[in-house]
Every structure is written in C-alpha cells, then in structure tokens.
C-alpha cells in the first residue's frame, strides 16, 4: 500500500498508458516499485508498455460505463483485490467549435469527463472504507484556461477539472487524495496532431511526458491538488480570474493569429485545429 510518497508495492492503474503521458506515468510508478496496470484502447501499445515495466496489460475502453467497470474489475483481480492509485489519463482532442459533430462532442464528454466520474463511482466505496486512495486526473491547461480552435476539448477539460475539484473538497478529510494535472504542450502524439493551433500555443513550450511525471510526484510529496508542469499556467489562471475581460481580449488575439496562419495556409478558422 502507498503512503504519501512511497509507492513500493502500490497498486496503480493508468488509463491511456500505451503512449504519451500515460506511458510516462506508468513507467514512473513502476520505477518506484508499484505494481502497475497499463490500460489503453490500443492493445499492442498496452502490452508493449506493460512488458517493458513488468506490469499487467488490461487493454480496452476506459471511458464507457461497461468499459470502466470491466477495467476496474480486471485491475483489482490483477493487483490482489485493491487499487491504491487510479490515473484517469486517457483523453481525446476533437477539433472544431459549435459545428463539431454530435459524436465528437459525446465522445469528448465520455472520454474526458464521464470516464473519471465512472471510475470514481467504482473506486470510492473501497477507498472510503479503507480511508485511503489517490485519484489522478490528467486534465490540461485547457481545463483552467481554454484552447483556441477546439471547443469540445476546452469545455470537457473544464468539466474534468471541476469534477476533480469536487472530489478533492468532498473526500479529502476521508483520506482520498486528488491531483489535477494541467500541462500546456507535452511532446506526444496529441501535440503532433494539433495543427496550426498547436504550432501557435503548444509546441513552443512543449515539455517531455517525463517532466509531467516529475511534476505529479512533486505535487504528491506536497499533498497538492493542482499539478502545473508549466508554472506560468498558474499566473495565467490567476490573471483570468482577476480580469476576465483582459484575458478574453488576449485570447482573442491568439484566435486572430490562428486565423491569419490558417488563412495563409488556405484553411478556415475552426476547421484545422486540434489540441
Ligand atoms: N499532449 C499534450 O500537449 C497534453 C496537454 C495537456 C493535457 N493532455 C492530456 O494528457 C492525456 C494524455 O494525452 P497524450 O498527450 O499522452 O496523448 P496520446 O494520444 O499520446 O495518448 C493518449 C492515449 O490514450 C488512449 N486512449 C484514448 N481513448 C481511450 C479510451 N477510451 N480508453 C483507453 N485508452 C484511450 C490512446 O489510445 C492513446 O494511447 C489526455 O487526457 C490529454 O488530454 C495532453
């Protein structure tokens, strides 16, 4: 079982761990002596990471009601009947605005938000009975600020942050720790596919997935909710709260810069961006 900073033998589940940030989190927990379940929709990727770290691959969907229930049941079986740490990391970035198709919006709600709600629903009885458990939510700076060019991502990441906050304030006195990881650009496939908006906002300050794992471990050591691998995001978040009009004007400048780039490239605003 884990204490606040000791993950030796801890039972850890990481969703979307076949690549990117999830793989870095799985590797880090394994390096600290944890027993790790590596989940991903991509079964080959899940098996590859699990094989590398001596973990257990439990491939499959980590978002839908049935998928989450099966993942948690199979993870408990693989980890000796308990889960100490659950990293709700899998996420998707659908492009577009209000014009994004219904299925892009509903998939974003499912993977970026309801996956977390469903996992918490399944984990809380065990954690409250034991008086301990750790829920790690990979949100995004887009959940504190916003991301130009992608409304489904920005909106659902705000909701993921809201749910993590709610969990933290509701259960912290009962031994449940919650962390919300809110990076800007991280060098993963998601950024590779983020197009002009990513070039503008994410790539210039993109960090490694390992740096995200470092930031999480620092937050764990301090028992801190908010994990800011890009510290400047904290200043922007404070600036947004202090003067929303100024913040919106600044973000609109970014939007117009994006439209200029897309205009040069022959694209149209809102059609070319992913984050
Ligand atoms: N890369 C960034 O710049 C960045 C910044 C902020 C937040 N994030 C967040 O980090 C998380 C991880 O993203 P990443 O950058 O490592 O991207 P990634 O695309 O490299 O990895 C995401 C992984 O999640 C898996 N996945 C997607 N849907 C799934 C589902 N329903 N069930 C199980 N697995 C699923 C994918 O197969 C993939 O392997 C996401 O929540 C993302 O929103 C990323």
TrEMBL record:
The species this protein was found in: Streptomyces thermolineatus
Family annotation (PROSITE patterns): ADH_SHORT (PS00061)
One Pfam family cited in the UniProt record for this chain: adh_short
Record-stated family: Belongs to the short-chain dehydrogenases/reductases (SDR) family.
UniProtKB keywords: Oxidoreductase
Keyword Transmembrane: no
Protein name listed in UniProt: SDR family oxidoreductase
InterPro entries: NAD(P)-bd_dom_sf, Sc_DH/Rdtase_CS, SDR_fam
Domain of life: Bacteria
